[in-house]
Amino acid sequence: MRFHELPKATQNVILVTVVIATAAGSSTLAYVHQFSITPFQLALCCAMCSALELLQIELTAEKSRMSLSFAGLLGVVMMFGPATGALVGLVEGATGNFVRHDPQTHRRHFAMPDAKKLVFNTFNHSLSASMAGLVYVWAGGTVGWVNQNAIVPALLATMAYFQVNTWGTAAVVATSKQLDIVEVWHENFLWTAPQSLMSYSAVLVGLWIYSAMQTAWIVFLVIPPVWVVYYSYRLYMDKIRHDLDHISALNTLNNSIITSLATAIDAKDHYTNKHLSRVQCYALAISDHLGLCAAEREAVRCAALVHDIGKLGVPEHILTKPGKLTPAEFDRMKQHVAIGAAILRPVNFPWPVVDVVLGHHERWDGLGYPNGLKGEEIPIGARVIALADVFDALTSDRPYRKAMAHEEAYSYICKHSGTHFDPRVVEALVSVMELCERQMAELGDGEPEGLGDVTIHHKISDEVMEQIARANSEFFAMYDPSQNVRGTFSLDASMQAVIEKVQKLVPFDTCAIFLEHSDAELRVEAVSGMYSDLLFGMKVEIGEGLAGRVFRDLEPVVNAPASHDVGRKVPYTQTLELNSSLVVPLRANGKTLGALAVYHSSYNIYTSDHARLLVLVAEHTANTVEAARRLQNSQDLGLTDLLTGLPNARMLNNWMTMRLEESRQTREAFAVVLIDLDDFALVNETLGHERGDDILREAAAAMQNCVRSADMLARYASDEFILVIPNSDPEMVRQLCHRLADSVASIGRHDHLRMGASIGCAVYPDDGLNARELIEIANAHMYADKNARKERE
Fold first, then answer.
1. For residue 315, is it left (φ>0), alpha (ψ between -120 and 50) or beta?
2. In the prediction, which pLDDT does 446 show?
3. Is the peptide bond before 765 cis (omega within 30 degrees of 0)?
């Protein structure tokens, strides 16, 4: 096992043991030079070096300090030898651990030291002093006497002290923080070398003068330059600390902004709630296990939060689609990677965040997107995010499937190791999963504190996050194309669509739609939930009950007793399980149609927000309900084709008039498709009109099976049909036309007929602004299709 793979406690014990053993060895070696100092001089040297040790300057490394004690120790080893220096170093090293220095106020106070640090610092200072003394002696320096011959030995002793002291401290700092020791030393200690050289110069000059003049007062000449060294470095470190605090504050602000925005994006879709936090946890654990460098780890940390930011450019109906995406939809979804990279590129991250975001959907076998990178061509950070992202997706509930168990997800990623995922990254995930699960269990629903050094000090409140998620859900529920109410032909179908839309937005146990039945009363025309059988068809006089009062006053009623309405049908001997109610008026074009009501078993459950949503649903759907009711009431006027049972040209004209009025207000496009049965006259001539009528009915039924309830299919002429498709996109219309043609081709085979259909399409408002223009354009496109098909035959 390598040293960096050992537990931190074991690494620190080994380092401290090595320092103590080395110090003991060097001190023993220094002892051969014996002590040439009196007890008074020894006490004076210890006091002087301890006092200089108190003049500490905080460095940028974690809890590392620089002091002027070196100046005193250098003088001691030059005047009294290595053994004395080792002994004084022990005392001076221990003294500094009992005093804490506040870098802000520069005040000092007594504090009990950590035992491990006390032992390490004591023996590290002793080791540094003894090694400096030995180098001084071995280089030819004379103990007790300083002249021009001591310049080089003293310089070498200074270098020895500096190297031993700083490298020992850097080793402990690097081990405790799992950093590279060379980087720690280079960034935090190399630049302090001038302080040692200045101290060396001052001590050398002072001792040289002392040796020449033999007077102890010369020490006062050394104090000013030494103090200048200390004070200048203190000012310098104060300036650096201020700049670092400012940079740290800016980084914290940037991290908080990025994290807050990413969390808000995460909250848009409740299916992936906390997805970013979990991905960050997995990715950082994998990065640490793989030993990624600091820049790569920072890139992973940031990219884990913003890798999905490009989904801002993907339509909501694609993001939240409950089924499998079509090829066109998947192509649109794939664009979120490039969109995200484009959003992040102006930020100018100091780490390769953009490359990680751009590559997190690449595959190890080169079949990913957007650039088809393969193997090591993919940035390592992108490979890490890719696996973390997929693993969390597999183990989370999504619109199209339930979450997998972790064991099943493990099997999936291991199966795709070497194809979809980097095998080395897969092995790392399996190794760190237990750690990740423990960390996420400790965090619960909170933000990932300590995971990537990103902490929102004031976390976005759960209420705000819920509002963001609810706003997105409201939008999709209100405008979900699969739950479109506009254009629904049947009154029953339109009212059922209204109830389904309400169900997505407002909680209820029973939902009822009251429509005006006569000048004096309302009638329940649609109901869902509890007591449906009892309530359907129930009549309420206008002005009575909740629905009748809302119809009259046009004011919503919130949390009134449900018994005012439901109690009319529930026997008094039976306990009524509905308690709260929310009733709003149903109005279209300035006319009151009825009331939309929901009831719940809980008390006072409905809020003003629920009332706003129900009013919005009523406003959004009332016109369609009224149109469907009008059309249903008009069926007795001959608006149905008697042969096929489809709406006839007259009903089509009425319906398109209504459709055009709505589209002019909503600016929503719709398509008009004209279908002509090829050579149908030959069918009548060959098989007779009676069989021809049968084939027309079969063709109408086959086409009816292809369209949605929101679409309008009508018989326009003898063998021509028109289909109106609301809220359609070109790809969907194209696919629908293919299905219509295939359905027509499937009939008449037992008569040995080859039926076919020529189809043309026009889109409002691009191809026309009224029914006549749209049908003419569709007719022209139909004949073009017919001619093209004949040429192919």
1. beta
2. 47
3. yes
**Which string of DSSP letters, residue by residue, matches 192-242?**
GHHHHHHHHHHHHHHHHHHHHH--GGGHHHHHHHHHHHHHHHHHHHHHHHH
Count of alpha carbons within 13 angstroms of residue 462, beta-carbon side: 3
Do residues 525 and 515 lie in contact, with contact meaning Cβ atoms separated by under 8 Å?
yes
Higher per-residue pLDDT: 194 or 308: 308
Cβ atoms within 10 A of the Cβ of 463, count?
A: 7
- pLDDT of 505 strictly over 70: yes
CA distance 615 to 611: 6
The separation between the first and the last C-alpha atoms of the chain, rounded to the nearest angstrom, is 76
Beta carbons of 789 and 755 less than 8 angstroms apart: no
Q: And the tokens for 273?
A: 């709630």
pTM comes to 0.47
Q: What angle do CA 479, 485, 489 make, to 5 degrees?
A: 155
Strand ranges (DSSP E) for 299-429? none
Helix, strand, or coil (residue 521): strand
Could you count the other beta carbons within 10 Å of the beta carbon of residue 6? Answer: 14
Q: How far apart are CA 480 and CA 486, in angstroms?
A: 11
87 backbone dihedrals φ, ψ, rounded to 5°: -70, -45
Question: Among residues of the chain, what percentage have pLDDT more than 70?
Answer: 68
Phi first, then psi: give them for residue 586, nearest 5 degrees: -110, 110
Let me know: does 164 contact 131? Beta carbons within 8 Å: yes
Bridge partners of 173, per DSSP, are: none
The three-state (H, E, C) secondary structure of 26-60, written as one string: HHHHHHCCCCCCCHHHHHHHHHHHHHHHHCEEECC
Point out which residues pair with 540 in neighbouring strands: 522
CA angle, residues 714, 718, 721, in degrees to nearest 5: 30
Q: What is the pLDDT of residues 292-331, one digit of tens each?
A: 888 888 889 888 888 888 887 777 667 766 667 778 778 8
Contacts of 694 (CB under 8 A, 6+ apart): none
Average pLDDT estimate for 121-137:
77
To which H or E segment does residue 673 belong? Answer: strand 670-677
What is the rounded CA–CA span in Å between residue 51 and residue 701? Answer: 102
pLDDT in tens, 515-550: 988 888 999 999 999 998 889 989 999 999 999 999
